[in-house]
Amino acid sequence: MSTVIDTQQTQIPAGTWQADPVHSGVGFAVKYLGVATFTGEVKGFEASLVDSRLTGTAWVSSIQVKDENLYGHLQGPEFFDAERHPELTFSGTDAGGGRFEGELTIKGITKPVTLEATVTGPVTDPYGNDRYGLAVTAVIDRTEFGLNWNNPLPGGGFALANDVTLTAELSLVKAA
Amino acid sequence: MRILAVSGSLRRGSHNTSLLRAAGELLPPTDELVLWDELRAVPPYDQDADGEPAPPAVASLREAVAGADAVLFATPEYNASIPGTLKNALDWASRPHATNPFRNKPVAVIGSSAGMFGAVWAQAELRKVLATMGARVVEAEVAVGHAADKFDEDGVLVDREIRAQLAETLATLLAELQPGLVAA
Questions:
Q1: How far is B76 from B20, CA to CA, in rounded Å?
Q2: Which of A26, A41, B5, B89 could cysteine-pair with A64, CB 3.0–4.6 Å?
Q3: Which of A176, A70, A71 is closest to A129 using CA atoms?
Q4: Could you tell me if the ipTM is greater than 0.85?
Q5: Could you tell me the residue range of the domain that residue B157 belongs to?
Q6: Domain A18-174 class?
């Protein structure tokens, strides 16, 4: 039987914490063709929580999708333009009530963003480390960051939604 | 800087080819414009033939694009779109999609037509195709309408305003190449 820590809260832990990259994940979800939600993962990232300031950097080249042509399209100027803007970054502070207010930078464009946060834990892991789970999410309009690609559908409307849900599920380990 | 110039017209006295030559004359001595003129030799796209070695004209286009800092297209307009020959060559060059030589390549599109609109619809279609291929399409347009009036019998551009627009387009294209714009 597994153990589930269900002490969910919105109190952001104090101190210095680093995301364990193997057991954390960063992803995005966006409606495609108006019916199903397309999801992708950003495999390479680092995140830390230091005195209630959450910072994170993710590498565009590490976006994981299931088709190499789609990967190429996402890396190109019509989407993230990885050649010129290889990183996605967020930096924000605990605003109380389970929110981080800060700035998100995509494709070199920086906009204010509020992340909704849920904290789970703490727990002591098998190696004696203190851990928290920190799940954050935000919905952004991709066109505000210069990701404007779309294609019209035969029956009207467009293929790709503008609203994109960003998520990060972080397994935070207390820094020694 | 080395700008590759591709004309969408095969016609011997093509105004679009003349427009590209006129653009080349506006470049500073440190930059050069090289005309790629093997469009006629590109075979119809056939996936069965899309392997190694590529047909010579296809290999030539891919190498020319890869070796250029930027590409300038001049297209005529056929039935509100680009010539099939040009689209065919781009279809060859676009494959494989994820690594094609147009990926991240700064490109600009200009055009001329015998009618009054200067191939604006064809230009828009060409920009769409190039963006889909992953090129860095700059926001610049030169639409030369009534082309026969804008060139002399030797194909030399005689319209001062178009010359200024060409210079502006080249400046926009070259600005796209400035290292200062590239993120660390």
A1: 12
A2: A41
A3: A176
A4: no
A5: 2-181
A6: mainly beta
